Amino acid sequence: MFRKKQENAQRTGASGDLRLTMSLDSNISMLKTVLNNDETVIFRDIKNIRQRSFRCCLVYIAGMINGDMANGSILRPLMTADMRPERADGDLLDFLCDKVISSHEITRSADINLLFATLFSGDAVLLLDGCDEALLICCREMRERALEEPELERVMRGPKAGFNESLMTSLLLIRQRLKTQDLKFKFRELGVRSKTRICICYIDTLASDGILKELESRLDKINVDGIIAANYIEERIKDSPLSPFKTIGNTERPDVVAAKLLEGRIAVVVDGSPSVLTLPYVFMEYFQSPDDYYNNYWFASVNRLLRCLSEFFTSSIPAIYVALVTYHHEMIPTQLLLSITAARQNVPFPTIIEALILLFILEVIREAGIRMPSPMGQAVSIVGTLILGQAAIDARLFSAPMIVIVAATGITGLITIKLKGATTIIRLLLLLLSSFMGLYGYIFGVIGATIHLFSMRSFGVSYMTNFGAIYSVDLKDTVIRAPWWYMKYRPKQMAFKNQIRQNTTGRESDS
After folding, report:
1. pTM, full prediction
2. Do 207 and 107 lie in a common domain?
């Protein structure tokens, strides 16, 4: 594909007053001056065997272009083609693009900024003597990581492929799952120095125009040197930036992105990052798993209920235990109270200090297990949980009931790994409130967290939209997962343009 661009009015910018001239030697000298001390940039002089007056120079970065493509499609044709002026028919650049160079994408431009951007992207730049424009030729070497299943989003059934760091590969994976002309891709660049390409993906007949404009407005306000990963964008465009809860989702699974697009959401794909952002994002999505939609709905509903209960346990067990042991002895069965009292004899720390120390050790072991190589990480976890736990009880440093409480807290926390950061903060706040005011402090903390969650929004959509639903259509994919044949309509909060998910002859009641 050949695209001719009239960019003579945009020859200045980040590169100052630099511009291409009619002299090849001058252009090469200018590029070498700008790219001083960069020995990876190669300047390949080319002469034609039939027309001695023809001179050009191919500029590229070593290791970034496809050598076979450059030799067969660019260098050899330029050296051997008949370059007589009468054959060029007046415009040498058009002649080269149409009849000499064989590449699927060639751009003709005089914009020096576009020239550098093309060069650093791995493509080649062809400079010609007597032309103040250059040809930007796509011949980059495509090096990609294999499509592997994401470690944190493994499923028992369903697709095993995940996104990789290539933007175009990620878009291809989405396109393969949504073969519709309504799927739209909008590209833009972010980062003054990194020039990172991102793509906004949405289904035109489902996504909200207002949310799309708001997203573009927030992206336009980003002014930073570089965008290295998707999280660089997420923190700059999210609602409630000081909240521990995220209001923008992220996933490495193409099937998850496709499913969210079909609900009217918008995805943001970042070049160089396998994580794709999705928005709007609501609280209930923390407890949803791709496995829920590949297994029987009874089994999926039980698992989802289990995740909700696990989140309650991991954030509340330490706080409730400290409140009961410290302030509310009368609420504990007598035999259990006697067992706890006997276990706590000769333990030097108060209950709250004991809980804080053990939770801190739990977080240290978890972090060490993540950062170390897999075999060593497993060994660290075993040593930390079994040997150190038993040794601490034998040494009377901690009581056995507290070890059990912290262990249960850690295990239940692994079920809702997406909520790990927010859960750690909420657990600590509830624990401190319970240590000062007992169950009253715990209840006040829960009420405060609930108010905070209900006050949040994600691009105009209520964060707790499913929990406050009064329509049955909004309850079918929340704490439980209804069967597919029953989910005929999209959630009202997400169905911005078209609520119908399945073609039906009669509409079910929404009450």
Report:
1. 0.78
2. no
